[in-house]
Write a structure and sequence with these properties.
Layout lengths: L1 H19 L12 H7 L35 H14 L3 H27 L2 H13 L4 H4 L5 H20 L9 H4 L4 H24 L8 H12 L6 H27 L16 H20 L19 H19 L5 H13 L28 H17 L4 H23 L5 H11 L4 H13 L3 H14 L4 H13 L3 H14 L4 H13 L3 H14 L4 H13 L3 H14 L4 H16 L2 H4 L1
Helix pairs in contact: 1-4, 1-5, 3-4, 4-5, 4-7, 5-15, 5-16, 7-9, 9-11, 10-11, 10-14, 12-13, 13-14, 14-15, 15-16, 17-18, 18-19, 19-20, 20-21, 20-22, 21-22, 22-23, 23-24, 24-25, 25-26
Length: 603
């Protein structure tokens, strides 16, 4: 009985803490990307769109009026939104609850992984509790759209844990003779083949959540090298052999995503000077220390980090960072035989940051500089929590430090939990979030634009215009701001000003479908029918499935007496949207008119 209590109490503690620190987030609403991905995305409630998630850009929703394609591939996340919608409807608390559940499961796997790594249940519990309540995770857990990192982390950790179980026979001393014989690999597959197969499958799912998971095979090699009881180079051979399926999955993923589906990063206009190997490399080195500082001192947290690119190795922050990273590498080598666990955890931190190197820059505003975000640290933070726990455990073993480790731990847990509970309030609704984030990044054009969108939904158009204009002052190439300004002018009946704004948006981005459609609508309102028709045709050239453009073009054809062309357009509308009653009624009227005017009828 006591054994069971000792076994379940750590997990109950972890579950309780991980839920309690995010409990106040359940009352939060949908914020930022949640609107596009969930609230305004009709596909979330249509299971007929299930397979579309696996062949399209993450932001390419079923609403053809939304022009968001950022080069993200997240089919499992889209599927999770569909499941949430089926369970809770469009109630945000249900989506928040799912994020909390995913985070809690991750925390349990952290405990299991470190229990095998430390062989110390108490140190493992400490690691998991630190991970559960660390405020760096609020962006990932409290923000519904932040679940990309939480879900990828959950499957990443579960795959890593099952790999640990796979090679468990190689970690024991009782098989020393066998381990250094050709029978070692047979021993692994004899006792752990089910764990191994499940680990590979979970890795596939993790990759379909987010690319951060791609570091797993490198960690598998390192873990096997560090902890398997192998000699004479056999640790290299076996680790490489066991990691091969994982590398094959990465290769297959890249082939499907980039070459078959053609999902590439969308680059915003401007800022081309921020590309290139040299500035990217030194900026990445600087950011490694920035991330470490945020983990160690999580006080000034923000969802919009402006991290200017570095262009010279002589910059003080770059010099400091080079020495800092060099010192971390030195510790990895020096501690390898002295404290293998600590060496592995430092290596874990550096390896899991590699996808954040920006050598393949992700879609982000150029004013962010080197793309940096707290949510990216969900997996790397595991190393920091483990290192902190290891240091506290080592302090407990030293007589003079024994009795100060407990107070330090309590202070950390209380500070982390309190900070997380407070940070959750920043995400309570869109207006609160953007106003708060703008205090951290007042020169962020995207945030001004996003707050303008909030005021549009509140029908406070003058305020919205002020924020859109400020976003253009900060970033003159912001075509979406011009489009939204034009939309406000059109609502106010200022058609000429609206046309000018839409043309400015198109000048910046000639392929911006929404502005072409809006410009066509303005031309139609002003009676410039041919111009309107030309714009709607441009829309359909860019997006042949744009339902409203087909419908408007059908109306123009009907008014011009081109009834057969009108019928063709309305039939295409109904093919794309079978429930479109306006198109159905228009089609019925035209067919009736054709029937009444047919030669047979006249006879």
């Amino acid at each position: 009985m006591m054994t069971k209590i000792r076994h379940y109490f750590p997990i109950l503690s972890i579950v309780s803490i991980s839920f309690l620190v995010y409990l106040n987030a359940l009352s939060n609403g949908f914020v930022w990307d949640d609107m596009v991905l969930i609230v305004d995305n009709e596909g979330v409630g249509k299971w007929g769109c299930f397979w579309e998630n696996f062949v399209r850009d993450f932001f390419d929703t079923t609403d053809d009026t939304i022009e968001f394609k950022y080069g993200y591939y997240r089919p499992i996340i889209s599927l999770s939104y569909m499941i949430d919608y089926a369970l809770w409807g469009i109630k945000p608390w249900g989506f928040h609850l799912s994020n909390m559940i995913f985070h809690t499961i991750s925390c349990i796997f952290v405990y299991l992984i470190f229990n095998a790594l430390f062989r110390n249940r108490y140190a493992s519990v400490v690691t998991s509790l630190l991970f559960a309540c660390h405020p760096i995770h609020t962006e990932s857990v409290t923000w519904i759209s932040g679940r990309t990192d939480v879900t990828a982390g959950m499957f990443f950790l579960s795959a890593f844990y099952l790999y640990q179980r796979t090679i468990k026979p190689l970690l024991t001393n009782e098989n020393t003779r066998l381990l250094n014989s050709p029978e070692a690999l047979k021993l692994v597959f004899k006792q752990g083949k089910v764990f191994y197969a499940c680990s590979v499958v979970l890795f596939v799912i993790a990759m379909l959540c987010k690319e951060m998971a791609a570091t797993l095979p490198f960690l598998i090699i390192a873990y096997t090298y560090y902890f398997a009881g192998l000699r004479n180079g056999r640790q290299y051979k076996i680790s490489l052999l066991l990691s091969t399926p994982y590398f094959f999955i990465i290769l297959l993923y890249g082939l499907i995503r980039f070459f078959i589906l053609g999902i590439h990063t969308v680059v915003n206009p401007g800022g081309e000077e921020m590309t290139g190997f040299y500035p990217t490399a030194i900026s990445f080195i600087k950011t490694i220390l920035l991330y470490l500082f945020k983990l160690a001192y999580p006080v000034r947290l923000s969802a919009y980090i402006q991290n200017p690119m570095s262009f010279s190795v002589s910059e003080p922050t770059v010099i400091l960072s080079i020495f800092g990273v060099a010192f971390l590498i030195f510790l990895i080598v020096w501690l390898k035989k002295r404290w293998a666990t600590m060496s592995f955890l430092i290596l874990f931190y550096l390896v899991t940051l590699l996808p954040l190197s920006n050598f393949v820059r992700i879609s982000a505003p150029w004013d962010m500089g080197f793309v940096t975000a707290e949510r990216f640290l969900y997996i790397p933070s595991l190393a920091f929590c483990g290192i902190t726990s290891a240091l506290l455990s080592r302090g407990w073993e030293i007589g003079r430090l024994k009795y100060i480790t407990i107070p330090i731990l309590i202070v950390l847990l209380v500070f982390y939990s309190g900070k997380t509970l407070l940070r959750n309030n920043d995400w309570v609704d869109e207006k609160t979030f953007f106003i708060k984030t703008l205090t951290d990044a007042p020169k962020a054009a995207l945030l001004h634009h996003a707050l303008g969108n909030v005021y549009v939904r509140e029908e406070k158009y003058e305020k919205a215009l002020d924020y859109y204009k400020e976003s253009l002052r900060l970033y003159p190439l912001y075509h979406a701001a011009y489009n939204n300004i034009g939309t406000i002018y059109s609502k106010s009946g200022l058609f000429d000003q609206a046309i000018t704004a839409f043309k400015e948006a198109i000048k910046i981005n000639p392929d911006y479908v929404q502005s072409h459609f809006n410009l066509g609508t303005m031309y139609y309102q002003k009676g410039m029918i041919q111009n309107a028709s030309d714009e709607f045709k441009k829309v359909l050239k860019l997006n042949k499935n744009y339902v409203k453009a087909h419908n408007n073009l059908g109306i123009i054809y009907a008014e011009n007496g081109q009834l057969n062309e009108a019928i063709s357009e309305f039939e295409e509308v109904l093919r794309l949207d079978p429930h479109n009653e306006k198109a159905r009624n228009n089609l019925a009227i035209i067919k009736e008119e054709l029937a009444n005017n047919s030669p047979d009828k006249n006879l």
